[in-house]
């Protein structure tokens, strides 16, 4: 059929005859296969203008039509082709018979086409009234079809409208959801920032607290150090006081007693007593010097320690020597520091002597 429509008639004839041979020698219901081939054969021979072949296949189709179900697709297709062929051959009465059969059986033929062909046949037969009736039916069917198409199109538009409305509603809901998520995100960020700020503030306060505690501890240590320094200074003042009292008071009194004993005593026990008093005076004098060497007022630490080493050698018989600092650097030390160093050296040497 396609080849015939393309005006390739020879090729179309070969294809149709090949299909006919297959239908004639096929398995199953050969009549159905044969009658299916007839519409193509009829259209082919119409184009080739071979009326004898058309008559042959019409007769063959009429015989086959009696052996196949009338409601089969093959039978309906042949009747539609036969009606069209009879119309083209101007056999309008035969064509109208087939058209009425197709109309009454509701074979699925398009009503507009069917009514138009029937109107054409009645017009050719000289019956304009029926021709007008069927043409009006074709027009009404066209209007009905157009109305149906319009209704269907409106329904499609309605579906599209509701679909678009749903899509807009979904988009609106998605927008609200996105806005809600954005709000939650902003709130989370704000909470995180506030938490971070609170944490930083807490850490800062803790750091300041530690610094304050350290300062307090340093102040306590400084206060304790100052207290210890004041205590040591107090001891030094007491040592100075006792040393002065021993040196200027008791030592002088003992010196006066010694002189009186020496001037008034004989060479007996009084001389021994004077020697004992002299020894006692020296011991008091040594204690006074150990408590607070009077040289601190006008000598440096190097000079005082050098004299202390010589005196220690004299009193204990142990060879003690002192090596002074370079360039007599100890003279720049404050008296308090020099005195503390003197006490340390004194304590160390006394422990060694013991």
Can you characterise this structure?
- The chain is mainly α and 354 residues long.
- Among the domains are: 2-109; 294-354, no CATH class.
- It is built from eleven helices and no strands.
- Helix 5 runs antiparallel to helix 6.
- The longest helix is centred in the middle third of the chain and has 137 residues, at 128-264.
- The radius of gyration is 72 Å and the shape is rod-shaped.
- The two termini are 143 Å apart.
- The mean pLDDT is 75.
- Keywords: ATP-binding, Coiled coil, Kinase, Membrane, Nucleotide-binding, Transferase, Transmembrane, Transmembrane helix, Two-component regulatory system.
- It catalyses: ATP + protein L-histidine = ADP + protein N-phospho-L-histidine.
- InterPro entries: Sensor_HK_TwoCompSys.
Briefly note the structural class of the backbone. mainly alpha
Helix content: over 70%
Would you tell me the overall average pLDDT?
75
Can you tell me the residue ranges where pLDDT is under 50 for at least 5 consecutive residues? none
What's the quick description here?
Its EC number is 2.7.13.3. With 354 residues, the protein is mostly helical.
List the helices and strands and how they pair.
Blueprint: H1 2-5, H2 9-24, H3 30-47, H4 51-65, H5 73-88, H6 92-105, H7 111-124, H8 128-264, H9 269-291, H10 301-316, H11 335-353
Helix pairs in contact: 2-3, 3-4, 3-5, 5-6, 6-7, 7-8, 8-9, 10-11
Characteristic key phrases:
single chain; mainly alpha; rod-shaped; coiled coil; histidine kinase; EC 2.7.13.3
């Amino acid at each position: 059929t396609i080849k015939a429509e393309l005006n390739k008639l020879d090729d179309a004839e070969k294809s149709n005859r090949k299909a006919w041979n297959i239908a004639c020698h096929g398995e199953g219901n050969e009549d159905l296969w044969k009658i299916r081939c007839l519409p193509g054969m009829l259209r082919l021979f119409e184009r080739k203008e071979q009326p004898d072949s058309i008559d042959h296949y019409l007769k063959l189709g009429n015989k086959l039509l009696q052996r196949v179900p009338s409601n089969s697709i093959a039978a309906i297709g042949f009747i539609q082709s036969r009606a069209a062929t009879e119309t083209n051959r101007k056999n309008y009465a035969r064509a109208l018979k087939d058209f009425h059969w197709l109309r009454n059986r509701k074979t699925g033929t398009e009503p507009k086409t069917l009514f138009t062909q029937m109107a054409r046949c009645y017009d050719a037969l000289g019956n304009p009234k029926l021709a007008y009736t069927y043409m009006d039916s074709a027009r009404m069917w066209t209007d009905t079809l157009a109305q149906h198409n319009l209704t269907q199109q409106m329904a499609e538009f309605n579906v599209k409208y509701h679909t678009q409305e749903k899509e807009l509603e979904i988009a609106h809901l998605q927008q609200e959801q996105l806005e809600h998520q954005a709000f939650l995100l902003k709130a989370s960020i704000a909470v995180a920032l506030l938490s971070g700020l609170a944490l930083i503030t807490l850490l800062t306060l803790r750091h300041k607290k530690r610094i304050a505690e350290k300062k307090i501890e340093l102040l306590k240590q400084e206060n304790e150090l100052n207290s210890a320094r004041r205590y040591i200074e107090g001891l030094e003042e007491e040592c100075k006081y006792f040393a002065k009292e021993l040196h200027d008071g008791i030592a002088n009194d003992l010196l006066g007693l010694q002189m009186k004993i020496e001037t008034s005593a004989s060479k007996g026990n009084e001389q021994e007593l004077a020697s004992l008093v002299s020894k006692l005076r020296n011991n008091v004098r040594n204690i006074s010097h150990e408590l607070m060497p009077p040289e601190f007022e006008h000598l440096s630490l190097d000079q005082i320690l050098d004299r202390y080493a010589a005196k220690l050698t004299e009193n204990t018989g142990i060879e003690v020597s002192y090596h002074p600092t370079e360039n007599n650097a100890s003279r720049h030390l404050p008296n308090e520091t020099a005195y503390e160093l003197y006490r340390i050296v004194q304590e160390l040497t006394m422990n060694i002597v013991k």
